[in-house]
Structures are given as structure tokens and as C-alpha cells.
């Protein structure tokens, strides 16, 4: 960073396409170094997929309806980006920009697990206790009968047994018979409590298929603690935009063409033409590929390589926080194998009167299915599914709702992308095409994370700056 300034050179002009996290980070970093940046943003708000909907906010979809959030004052819905891992550069920007953060509960033993084979949902702690318990028992017994002696010495065996007893809460005979880890009918207090009792059979536990649900948070990008900005994820986009300077950001300005010139770039947009020394294009690749440009057929082919993936969410605002009062769930995620996939409970506003639950967060086919429906039908479907877990109150206590199908969002048209391969196009677009650079989460191995957008932006501006230093 120390050398990241123009040290007396005339300010190079950079036009940034897209007021997303990638675009704003580019303009923010270049601005710090003294560059003269202009950000062109097609929609009427900054942030890209970092959006937070509040009372009165409108949301339109391609070929669809416009919804208006009818939330109460104070309710918000992070309709896109929702959680941040500790190691992500996103937190460094929060610190630098003074965006306060709080814990995002990504994993809650009290939340439910529900798969279609189950008569009723079980708490995550119960599903986990039973799976760990039986797996530990099987392994401990296999080892005990010397079935693993090709891998284990006598000492290994002892150490493994010691671990497995803890891991599964096994009896001295290495059998899993259930454990207080499963939870209680009545929790201990003055009395010793009433534990849930014996687990279902090993066969039943395996048949329930809860393995995916109880391992999601093992991932390096999903492990607790995770974080969110206080008051809504859009605080990050807002703080970046303020730091860039709102006067440098032109919203409602759709780009219509990019032209590389020998000594600069020419960007055409709805309102006219803009000349600059350099351009950083941060639009989704499938939209960039459709823009008229003179960057060559290889660039177009590369931009067409990543495949857009659908993603959707619905925000369900409730009159009362029944998940806290009735279910004793304070934040976290219920995992299901239904088409809603997840239910998120809010990690803020505990014990306030109302609150908003994310009734589905799904991707690919499930998101396409919901995306084809009207908002009304999405809501009906989401309520029908959620009722299987939470019962009638899931419908009757609803106050208002808003849903988003990212593949139908104007100027974005996707939840994120997947690269069939990182050979070829991925590498090509890391380099500038003439004076045009590319940036976005789609150009990283952190697709669908704000951190990916930021890392990519930092790479692009570092390279651009190196070139500017060499050129003069
Ligand atoms: N970042 C998104 C999320 O947290 C999408 C994502 C999920 C990306 C899992 C990678 C892995 O849900």
C-alpha cells in the first residue's frame, strides 16, 4: 500500500462499470491513490447483490412484477449477501470504513433439521448427537474387534477409542444409547430435567439423511462465528459509496458499449459517451459478453464461459417472534431437503416485537422453480413448506413478505456463476484487454462472496497502478 499513490503524476482517469462491491472497491482504492474515477451504475442503487430491503423499497424483476416492501419500520431483509467469514477481506473494509458488525448465527443447535423421510423435524443437536454417536460406535467397535489393525497399533487403538467415546458420548461398552446431547423434553433446573430419551435405530438415523444438514458449517467459509453489518448488509456498499464520493457515481446509467482506443477508452452509455485513460468492467460476465465492444472474440468467448446460477430468497415478516418465544431459536439456520432448502432466523433484534425470517434461500433448479412463480405463489409455496417444520403459526402470524429471484434481476441476471474450468478464459480475463480491466467475484475462487469482489478489485487496481507508474 505504501507505494499506492501517483506521486506527483497527473491523475489518470478511470471509468468503472458497475457500482457493485467490485466496482465500488476499485473506485475507493483508486480514489485513495488520487485517481479520477467515475462509476457508471445501471440501476438506481449501488451495491449489486448487496441489497437490503426496508419499508417502502421497490423491487422489480425482468418480465415480472414490481414488489414494494410493506415491512414495519425497523425491519430489514438482506436479499443478497448475508454473512461474512472471519478471514474475509470484507471485515477489513468494515473496520476501515467504520461499519459496525455483529455476530451472524450460522449454526444453531436449537434450529431444526427436516428431511422428507421424517415424521417431524428434530433439533440440529439431536440429529448431530445421533449421527456422531452411531458413527463413533461403529468405528470404535470395528477397531475394538481388530478390524482396523492394518492401520492401527495397539496405542493408536487406545487413543482412537478415547476420542470416539468423547465424540459419540458412548458408553463404556462403546455402544451409543443416546445422550443428553440429544436435548431435553424439559431442560434441567431445580429438577434434573427430562431428557429426550433413546435415539432411533442406526438404520432410521441413516435413512433420515441428515448428514448434509449437520456438516454444512464444517466448511472454511461457513464456520462460526460469522458476521453481518449492524442494521443491514447494504451498510458496506453505502460506506464504500460515501468514501468514493456520491458525485462520482452515476446511478441509472446503463453502459451500451466499450471501445478500446490507442490512448484511452470510450464508454458509451444511455446518457452519452465518456472518455477515460482506463476502464474497469465489473458487470456480470454474461452481461458484458452481450455489450458491443472491440476487445476481440477471445474476450467474448471467455466472458461466455462462466455459467450463471439462479438463486432466490424470500423475506417473511412476522407479527411476533414465535421462533424465539415458542421454539427457543435465537438466530441460525434450519436445514431441509425441501425446495426451500434453508430457513434463516434473524441474528439481531432479539426479543423485539416483530422480525423477519428468510423463508427460503435456494439455488439452481429450486431457485428457478420459485423464480418462475409470481410473488404470491412463491409465498404460498414457501409457507406450505415451512409449515411442515413450524406448524400453522408459520402462516397465520405472517405480516408481509418480499421475494427475490436473482436470475430475474435487471442488470444482474443471476445469483452467481460457476466456471466449468479455470483454464483459458478465467486466466485471460485476469489480464487487461488493451486498456480495459475486469473485476468481480466471478473472476476469483470466492464466487458469491463480497470478499471475492473485493479481492478481484484489489488485483485489478494494483495492476492498473503498476502500469500507470511504468508508463510515465
Ligand atoms: N456466499 C453465499 C452464501 O454464504 C453463497 C455461497 C454458499 C458461496 C456456499 C459459496 C459456498 O450462502
From TrEMBL:
InterPro entries linked: Amino_oxidase (IPR002937), FAD/NAD-bd_sf (IPR036188), Flavin_monoamine_oxidase (IPR050281), TAT_signal (IPR006311)
Alphabetical list of Pfam families matching this protein: Amino_oxidase
PROSITE patterns named in the record: TAT
Domain of life: Bacteria
Residues in Amine oxidase domain copies: 21-464
Signal peptide: none
Keywords: Membrane, Transmembrane, Transmembrane helix
Annotated protein name in UniProt: Flavin monoamine oxidase family protein
Taxonomic lineage from the root: Bacteria, Bacillati, Actinomycetota, Actinomycetes, Streptosporangiales
Amino acid at each position: 500500500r505504501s507505494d499506492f499513490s501517483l506521486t506527483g503524476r497527473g491523475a489518470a482517469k478511470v471509468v468503472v462499470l458497475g457500482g457493485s462491491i467490485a466496482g465500488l472497491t476499485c473506485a475507493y482504492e483508486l480514489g485513495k491513490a488520487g485517481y479520477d474515477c467515475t462509476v457508471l451504475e445501471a440501476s438506481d442503487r449501488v451495491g449489486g447483490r448487496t441489497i437490503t430491503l426496508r419499508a417502502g423499497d421497490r423491487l422489480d424483476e425482468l418480465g415480472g412484477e414490481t414488489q414494494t416492501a410493506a415491512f414495519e419500520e425497523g425491519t430489514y431483509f438482506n436479499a443478497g449477501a448475508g454473512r461474512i467469514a472471519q478471514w474475509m477481506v470484507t471485515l477489513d473494509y468494515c473496520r476501515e470504513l467504520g461499519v459496525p458488525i455483529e455476530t451472524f448465527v450460522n449454526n444453531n443447535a436449537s434450529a431444526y433439521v427436516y428431511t422428507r423421510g421424517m415424521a417431524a423435524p428434530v433439533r440440529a443437536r439431536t440429529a448431530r448427537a445421533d449421527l456422531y454417536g452411531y458413527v463413533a460406535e461403529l468405528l470404535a467397535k470395528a477397531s475394538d474387534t481388530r478390524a482396523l489393525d492394518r492401520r492401527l497399533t495397539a496405542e493408536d487403538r487406545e487413543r482412537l477409542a478415547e476420542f470416539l467415546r468423547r465424540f459419540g458420548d458412548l458408553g463404556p461398552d462403546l455402544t451409543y444409547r443416546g445422550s443428553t446431547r440429544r436435548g431435553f423434553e424439559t431442560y434441567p433446573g431445580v429438577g434434573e430435567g427430562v431428557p429426550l430419551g433413546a435415539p432411533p435405530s442406526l438404520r432410521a438415523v441413516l435413512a433420515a439423511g441428515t448428514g448434509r444438514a449437520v456438516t454444512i458449517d464444517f466448511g472454511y467459509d461457513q464456520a462460526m462465528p460469522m458476521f453481518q453489518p449492524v442494521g443491514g448488509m447494504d451498510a458496506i456498499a453505502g460506506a464504500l459509496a460515501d468514501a468514493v464520493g456520491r458525485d462520482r457515481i452515476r446511478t441509472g446509467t446503463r453502459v451500451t458499449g466499450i471501445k478500446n482506443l490507442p490512448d484511452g477508452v470510450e464508454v458509451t452509455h444511455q446518457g452519452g459517451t465518456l472518455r477515460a485513460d482506463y476502464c474497469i468492467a465489473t458487470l456480470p460476465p454474461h452481461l458484458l459478453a452481450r455489450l458491443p465492444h472491440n476487445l476481440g472474440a477471445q474476450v467474448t468467448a471467455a466472458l461466455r464461459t462462466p455459467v450463471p446460477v439462479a438463486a432466490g430468497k424470500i423475506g417473511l415478516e412476522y407479527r411476533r417472534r414465535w421462533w424465539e418465544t415458542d421454539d427457543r431459536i435465537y438466530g441460525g439456520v434450519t436445514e431441509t431437503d425441501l425446495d426451500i432448502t434453508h430457513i434463516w432466523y434473524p441474528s439481531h433484534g432479539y426479543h423485539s416485537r416483530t422480525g423477519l425470517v428468510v423463508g427460503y434461500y435456494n439455488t439452481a433448479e429450486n431457485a428457478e422453480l420459485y423464480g418462475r412463480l409470481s410473488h404470491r405463489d412463491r409465498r404460498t409455496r414457501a409457507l406450505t413448506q415451512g409449515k411442515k417444520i413450524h406448524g400453522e403459526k408459520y402462516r397465520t402470524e405472517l405480516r408481509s413478505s418480499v421475494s427475490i429471484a436473482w436470475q430475474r434481476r435487471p442488470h444482474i441476471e443471476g445469483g452467481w456463476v460457476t466456471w466449468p474450468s479455470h483454464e483459458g478464459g478465467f486466466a485471460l480475463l485476469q489480464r487487461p484487454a488493451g486498456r480495459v480491466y475486469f473485476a468481480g467475484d466471478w473472476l476469483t475462487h470466492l464466487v458469491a462472496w463480497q470478499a471475492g469482489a473485493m479481492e478481484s478489485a484489489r488485483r485489478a487496481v494494483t495492476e492498473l497502478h503498476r502500469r500507470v507508474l511504468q508508463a510515465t
